[in-house]
Amino acid sequence: MSVPLAAPVEPLRLLASRTAALCLVELQKLRRDRTEVVTRAVQPALWLLVFGQTFTRLHVIPTGGVPYLDFLAPGILAQSALFVSIFYGIHIIWERDAGVLAKLMVTPTPRAALVTGKAFAAGVRALTQALVVVVLAALLGVGLDLNPLHLLGVAAVLVLGSAFFCCLSITLAGLVLKRDRMMGIGQAIIMPLFFASNALYPVSVMPGWLRVLNHVNPLSYEVEALRGLLIGTPARLLLDFGVLAGSAAVAVAVASAILGRLTR
Amino acid sequence: MRIAGLRHRFKETVAVDGLDLVVREAEVFGLLGPNGAGKTTTIRVLTTLLPPQAGTVEVFGQDVRRRRMAVRRLIGYVPQALSADPALSGRENVALFARLFDVPRAHRRERTAEVIDAMGLTDAADRPAGTYSGGMIRRLELAQALVSAPRLLVLDEPTIGLDPVARAGVWDRIHQTRARTGMTVLVTTHYMEEAAAHCDRVALMHRGRIRALDTPAALVASLDGGGDGGEANLDDVFREYTGDDLDGGGFKDVRAARRAR
Predict the structure, then answer these.
(1) In 10 A of CB A56, how many CB atoms?
(2) Quick check: A107 and B88 CB within 8 A?
(3) Chain A residues with CB-CB distance to B under 8 A?
(4) Can you tell me whether residue B167 is helix, strand or coil?
(5) pTM of the entire structure?
(6) Chain A residues with CB inside 8 Å of B188's CB?
(7) Alpha-carbon distances, residue B173 vs A152, B123, B135, B180 (angstroms)
(8) pLDDT, tens digit, for every residue of A238-252?
């Protein structure tokens, strides 16, 4: 039963190869459980249908001449990606408890690759959900820019944002170590992240202290980029992509450093 | 595998207390002991999950502290919990590990099919692992661990929670693979009759140290007539070296064992 193993590869290729392997697994799981895509779409659908349509009639939020539903749709897209990725910490604790994480960590896979694989897997799941939200928004009459390049940019933004929040969640899981504590923390941070961003309202209506939080919240840069790409509002795309890519890279490094705590 | 002076503590608790151990190439070596004896900590250090705090551990000459990736390429590991991904098919579970161990693309499909067949799972290979019985999942995990043709197979309580038929099936596959490949097997188990039947040598570990080490037959013979006057077995040896002092295992140990069922 001999098997020729490939020669050890250079770190970057190893990272790419392992990330691809773990993403493929995530797609295989999604293929089996399509109901998840539908059930997870209920919440963003409610935000668009109920909150979006109601506030569109109220005309109380200054959106610079853009219909409120159009303004809101990219925010809900970012929110749904945040909800998918912020609970990856619970998922990784489940994997720890089931022995899956230890088994993966005993393979010749750098911890950064395990974390990057999870981060991109979160991105892949977020994209499947984003598809549902975009279709729903189009059906509700949101004026979406369907330029393929812009849609590609939307996908990149969602993957980077999901990667950051997934790694944040894995880092917190590595610190608290317990599933029930992690659930509490997930619930505790998700709404502050959402409300301290420009997802529901523009920065101009925020009080000063909230503007400061908005300034350091990667979700705001994600929303700004999505809004710029999907509905053509002014956006600092270079800055947005830079912040998202930088945050994701730092978050991968921190989560990788802390991952070992979960199996000790 | 060579362990010298291994010590590891968790805060005030000394888990491994100056362990010296040599496992010979191509043998089936049983690491026995009550809950809390230090077996799992030893395995975690050996498999690079825990860095050794003191002492040295080498796997085929590779130091686990300095050459972690090289050690991982030599090891196949089956943890105590049933750890196959229930959402993936058996084939997908094994194929993932073929990729993670760099089995070349040209051989991956064939190699995956080969180990699945060796574990008697070909007919179920495309079903989700969540539909497998406990014995089938253990054999699937063996297939995952063996897909890279490891030189050292590490099994942490591989048959816990399985019925006698499934246990026999798992051991049959381990022996068949070992006979073909000559790999070394390190196993921890609570089942003394299994250790006696399947291990070439066993070490009895208690409170972080090796208390006895030899072939099962030699350990039984060393009791000189048996524990209670009858014919002695490895259970008597276990009791001889651990006595009634079996409260070392904590809630975590028991929960982990039950989760595997």
Answers:
(1) 17
(2) no
(3) 1-6, 8-9, 17-18, 21-22, 24-25, 28-29, 32-33, 97-100, 102-110, 260, 263-264
(4) helix
(5) 0.84
(6) none
(7) 49, 16, 11, 11
(8) 999 999 999 999 999
